[in-house]
Design goal:
mainly beta; 7-stranded antiparallel sheet; Immunoglobulin-like; Jelly Rolls
């Protein structure tokens, strides 16, 4: 009977966790729009095509961004243009809801080392592709030409906005994604026309330099899956819109640091982040597993107000990941620092297994810095205090005010932004703050230290603490409080656990002059 009851409890606990998850995202729907047109543009001097030229690179399969063309006579940069028709997008937005986030997703088809600037071009949306099989214009002559493109008033910054830059794009199959919500809001507003044009210009544009090109999957890309109805490559540029009721934004009482509006949510996008109620308090939550992108953390919230040299980061975090009735060792979260962009930053990864440590992200992915700590940094599904301190090139991690590991390496000394996130797991965060004062706790409090025995225990559990015990709490593996004892004891306490079902539990001891501490025990 006890085993059946325990199984029922696990089922109910799983349902409870699922309800938390779905409630955070229940009001959010997605709408995906693929590009309506895309092409590569460059100048030319050949007599057969006059002074304007479009290129059909790779049979129209790639949008090319390069510092010069394959042909010696066309020594000039080539750029890519992409257009989205958003005319029907308002029909996807129910009354009382709005676009919460919009991100463009593109896939790299080839790359020899170029990057791009992405500009939102305003009021220049009435154009057609016009790609020809040999680089010439289409027979009707109605396609967009280099001459037409250069006639755009690039001197007037009111006509365009630089919305993203990436000089270090990865290789074949690399996924590029960034926020385009402001550009979308403009085109759906009074000044826009519901047609969105993005221009991709090479970061290396010197025709005298070695040739550097970047290719992005186009609508006509012959590689990979093709939509059977439209005939468009599924890896072509597309925008995912996240639509729903505006969500709460404040997840803690730490000024500035506690408002999600102060963070760049990257690279996972809005869909994986929400402010939710957990254990009676607002928390910032990654609401679904953010699968790693290009071998780097799949979800990062970067505090975007300041850059930091030395820092002292404090936060609360927990990961709800259960496997076979216990914490899944693959549970993880990260603290990011030295953040320049999605291809240049460092992070400390905390996990339930033996790969805890510091990593450096560059264009090739993530690499270890220093030795890893093989002692699990996450031992349960409860909130703990985590701290990361950098002094020069030394970064030290603390868990519940106890030093966990420290590494000194020049790779960890770069200035940059700071933040938090996860490599690939659902995680909760609260009271993220940088600077003296920690997570809002009184600095002179110390961790309550205690021992418990026997463990495993059958009927009685004995607690011995270094200071006076004020309160004891027993919780199950998913963090639900089972029993609470309000006591004042001289430092030792006997607890009757005979009524508990068999399984794994956690006991939290609150001392009169110390911060609470938690330990795991097994009920036989």
């Amino acid at each position: 009977m006890k085993n059946s009851t325990l199984s029922l409890k696990w089922i109910l606990a799983s349902i409870f966790t699922l309800l938390i998850f779905t409630s955070a995202q229940s009001q959010i729907t997605q709408a995906t729009f693929y590009s309506a047109a895309d092409l590569s543009l460059g100048s030319g001097t050949g007599g057969d095509i006059g002074d304007a030229k479009t290129r059909n690179f790779g049979g129209g399969g790639s949008i090319m961004v390069t510092n010069y063309d394959d042909y010696p006579g066309y020594m000039s940069p080539f750029e890519g243009w992409v257009k989205f028709d958003l005319t029907t997008l308002p029909d996807s937005i129910p009354d009382g809801q709005a676009i919460l986030y919009a991100e463009i997703i593109m896939k790299v088809s080839n790359n020899s080392g170029n990057g791009y600037y992405c500009y939102h071009l305003k009021d220049i949306d009435d154009w057609k592709e016009g790609n020809g099989s040999s680089g010439s214009l289409d027979e009707t002559g109605e396609g967009l030409t280099w001459t037409m493109a250069q006639a755009y008033d690039y001197e007037n910054e009111a006509n365009y906005t630089l919305i993203h830059t990436n000089p270090d794009v990865g290789g074949v199959s690399w996924i590029e994604t960034f926020n385009v919500k402001k550009a979308v809001d403009y085109e759906l507003g009074a000044e826009g026309n519901k047609l969105l044009t993005l221009r991709f210009y090479p970061t290396i544009d010197d025709p005298e330099a070695d040739k550097k090109w970047l290719g992005l999957y186009a609508r006509e890309a012959p590689w990979g899956a093709i939509d059977p109805e439209s005939g468009i490559a599924l890896d072509a540029p597309h925008i995912i819109f996240y639509i729903g009721t505006p969500q709460p934004t404040v997840f803690s009482d730490i000024e500035n640091f506690g408002d999600i509006g102060n963070y760049d949510i990257t690279p996972s996008g809005f869909r994986k982040w929400a402010v939710v109620d957990d254990e009676g308090d607002a928390r910032l939550m990654i609401t679904e597993r953010p699968a790693p992108i290009n071998g780097t953390p799949g979800g990062v919230a970067v505090y975007n107000m300041d850059t930091y040299g030395d820092f002292d980061i404090n936060l609360k975090a927990k990961v709800n990941k259960i496997k076979s009735g216990a914490l899944d060792p693959l549970a993880d979260f990260i603290i990011a620092f030295g953040y320049e962009d999605g291809k240049n930053y460092s992070y400390m990864r905390f996990t339930g297994e033996d790969i805890n440590g510091f990593y450096l992200v560059d264009t090739s992915g993530a690499v270890e810095v220093g030795e890893l700590n093989t002692t699990p940094a996450i031992a349960d599904t409860m909130y703990h205090d985590y701290r990361l301190v950098r002094s020069g090139t030394t970064v030290t991690a603390y868990i519940d005010e106890v030093e966990y590991m420290s590494v000194t390496d020049d790779k960890l000394g770069k200035e940059g932004m700071i933040g938090m996130g996860s490599y690939n797991d659902i995680a909760f965060f609260d009271d993220f703050v940088e600077g003296a004062g920690g997570t809002g706790m009184v600095n002179d409090l110390y961790q309550t230290r205690f021992t418990l025995y026997p463990n495993p225990a059958e009927d009685k559990l004995y607690i011995n603490a270094e200071n006076t015990i004020q309160k004891l709490q027993i919780s199950n593996i998913v963090g639900q409080e089972i029993q609470t004892f309000h006591v004042v004891s001289s430092g030792s306490k006997e607890i009757d656990i005979s009524q508990l079902e068999r399984g794994i539990y956690f006991i939290t001891v609150h001392g009169m002059n110390g911060r609470p501490a938690t330990a795991k025990f097994i009920k036989k």
